[in-house]
Amino acid sequence: MKRIKLSVYLDRMIEDYKKRESYSSAHICAAVKRSIFTYYGADHELYMGDVTPQFLTGYEHWLTVTKKCSWNTSSLYIRFIRIACNRALEDGNVKHIPNLFKHVFTHVTRNHERALLPKEMRMLITPDAADAPAGSGAPKRRSPRRPILKAALYLELLVRLQGISFRDLATLRKADVHGDYIVFRRQKTGVEVHIRLTESVRNLLGRCKADPDSPFLLNLLDSTLTGEALYNNYCRALRNMNYYLKKLALLRGVCRKVSSYCARHTWATVAKDQKIPLLVIAECLGHTSATTTEAYLKASDNNCLDAANATVVKHILG
């Protein structure tokens, strides 16, 4: 049995993810590797045989207490370590340890903090008097509020488009527009999603002024990039979006932590409060959950999904 470092398996996983163009997973795996290096120390070599229940509980405590990571982040990192351990076990490079991950958290907790109240979402989206453009006699120069207001526009799109994720919004293509619907497959799950193009959504898209030479519906990504470079471009766009949303929250007096994820969580929470069936919510969001329920029921038709989205948007935005 070979003594192989955990970092070797993590490096292999990173390369495999990149070959499959799963750049998000590769990015997370690299973060796990850096995190373990920091925790275990530069002067120590962590081999696969060193991944014991004691190591895992200590690492989890360091993540959640010392580094103040959320339980979901800690769980995500540990699940990547579990993948590496399973690969090493298949290769015969580590002994089987019963219940190795029994005493660490490897599930997902519900995050209610990301869901805003409908009135808070309206405060973020609704323009105020200070947003009005200057008079014709004012000098034409870029307003410092312009990127903040653009973030508000994208936030409204995230809500009106059935709580679409920012990544899916950024990668929407003009070819995804089919008459009165946007039809696309989620980047994360591959599930096909149908969203009606309401008049309000069309107006918002018109205000975004898409580049006529770009295949993308919005100007959030550089259409000349591909592969990992395009993914990195998306990460920068997401960071910018969240930065300006924080500015927007301060500007509008919303005393909550606001990010692009708030739109999705708010949409789902309001949908649940409005008694929309869980299966319909899952379909609107493009989730792969509730698979057992889907096996017993036929998929909802577009009219049902349209009605669900209209109900949620009306309750949030009026």
Overall description:
The protein has 318 residues and is mainly alpha-helical. The protein folds into two domains: 6-91; 113-131 and 144-317, Intergrase catalytic core (hpI Integrase, Chain A, Orthogonal Bundle), CATH 1.10.443. The protein has 13 helices and three strands; from the N terminus they run αααααααβββαααααα. The protein has helices spanning 6-19, 23-40, 53-66, 71-91, 118-125, 146-160, 166-170, 199-208, 227-252, 261-273, 278-285, 291-296, 302-317; strands spanning 177-178, 181-185, 192-196. Strands 1-2-3 form a three-stranded antiparallel β-sheet. Helix 1 packs antiparallel against helix 2 (23-40) and helix 6 (146-160) packs across helix 9. The protein is elongated and about 65 Å long. Mean pLDDT is 89; it is low at 291-298.
How is this structure best summarized?
The chain has 318 residues and is mostly helical.
User: What is the CATH topology classification name of the largest domain?
Assistant: hpI Integrase, Chain A
Q: Rough shape?
A: elongated
Q: How large is the count of helical segments?
A: 13
Mean pLDDT: 89
CATH structural architecture of the largest domain: Orthogonal Bundle
Radius of gyration: 23 Å
Number of domains: 2
Structural features:
318 residues, mainly alpha, 2 domains, 3-stranded antiparallel sheet, 13 helices, 4% strand
Write the layout of secondary structure elements.
Blueprint: H1 6-19, H2 23-40, H3 53-66, H4 71-91, H5 118-125, H6 146-160, H7 166-170, E1 177-178, E2 181-185, E3 192-196, H8 199-208, H9 227-252, H10 261-273, H11 278-285, H12 291-296, H13 302-317
Antiparallel strand pairs: 1-2, 2-3
